[in-house]
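Practice problem: Hexosyltransferase
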Amino acid sequence: MVINANRGDSLDRNINEENRSTKDFLILEVHEEAQEELPKKAKFFLSTTVQKWDADIFVKVDDNIDLDLEALIGLLERRHG
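Answer key — structure tokens:
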């Protein structure tokens, strides 16, 4: 999950606590959340994740998307076995 740092509010503390156990958050320290900045955020996500995590595939999904994860996994398994 890619998020912006909020600097100490209760949501930020909860995220930090979950990230300590899951290690699956990418917290952007210097990113301005604005519509015109989304391409930069996506580019930063992709360039950072391929350096940070070893995976065969990365999926970028916006937070307003209802992702059928089982269907996606099935599609990937059929195409890439």
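Discussion: The mean pLDDT is 80. Students who identified this feature from the tokens alone can consider the problem solved.
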